């Protein structure tokens, strides 16, 4: 990790901070000088991450689907550290048993749809609702929201999850538009397949190789890749970046959909096929 100190004197709240992307982000921001409130539905995990960081962090149990719980996460962090400069809205409902029920418009239960939106959308709204006044009090701040490539393209399932993340894409632009002149920036990150513990529970078997073949980099993503992007977007180095969503996906969504078929037909070194007459025929 580069020896940067971009967050000296600043305070951040990270939701879903007990593991995966959130934990990596909490550690990254703290390493760069921030004090962090680590919120997670598993309070023990949140406290463990905070304990690993030390006095610059506090672990707080919270449920993104409970707005009072979100308010408590923000207020507890501010009471502890005196201000708020950064919010990473990252928590999402990813439990395998829930995702398994997030299927298609005919079979999905309304409670699965509603619970998904309560956590993934209303939870992000609550984070902004309670964080923004504290940011305004110190002259501005930065909000970074974890979105998903699912918000950009259709898939064979997970329609509630994808739709909730699509809602967040326009929510980001709305927050950026409303509060930009008051010094608050708002951006998003679309992660690719990130090999966290939670990611391994939901994507495994043949799907891992399929996703790797469609990733342009030699490897799949790690939580630290997303944490680095969050740190950039939340820092003053991104002072002229707002209302944007950054794809941090190893190029998964930037190529033609037939890429893997071309590589399978012509070989890794022949992405455009052979130029010989025989191949053209």
Q: What is the strand tally?
A: 7
What low-confidence regions span 5 or more consecutive residues with pLDDT below 50?
A: 273-281
Structural class: alpha/beta
Radius of gyration: 20 Å
In terms of DSSP E residues, the strand content is 5-15%
Strand order of the largest sheet: 3-2-1-4-5-6-7
Share of helical residues: 40-55%
Q: State the separation between the terminal residues, measured CA to CA.
A: 51 Å
The biggest beta sheet is recorded as: 7 strands, parallel
Helix count equals 11
Shape: globular
Task: Provide the residue-averaged pLDDT.
Answer: 91
Oligomer type = single chain
Encode the helix/strand succession as letters: EHEHEHEHHEHEHHHEHH
Question: Any overview of this molecule?
Answer:
The protein has a 7-stranded parallel beta sheet, with helices on both faces. Helix 1 (20-31) runs parallel beside helix 2 (43-53) and helix 3 (67-81) runs parallel beside helix 5. Helix 6 links the parallel strand 5 (141-146) and strand 6. Helix content is 46%, strand content 14%. The chain is α/β, with parallel strands linked by helices.
What secondary-structure arrangement, pairings included, does this model have?
Elements: E1 11-15, H1 20-31, E2 35-40, H2 43-53, E3 57-61, H3 67-81, E4 86-89, H4 96-99, H5 110-137, E5 141-146, H6 159-179, E6 184-191, H7 197-202, H8 206-213, H9 223-234, E7 245-248, H10 259-266, H11 277-280
Parallel strand pairs: 1-2, 1-4, 2-3, 4-5, 5-6, 6-7
Helix pairs in contact: 1-2, 1-9, 3-5, 5-6
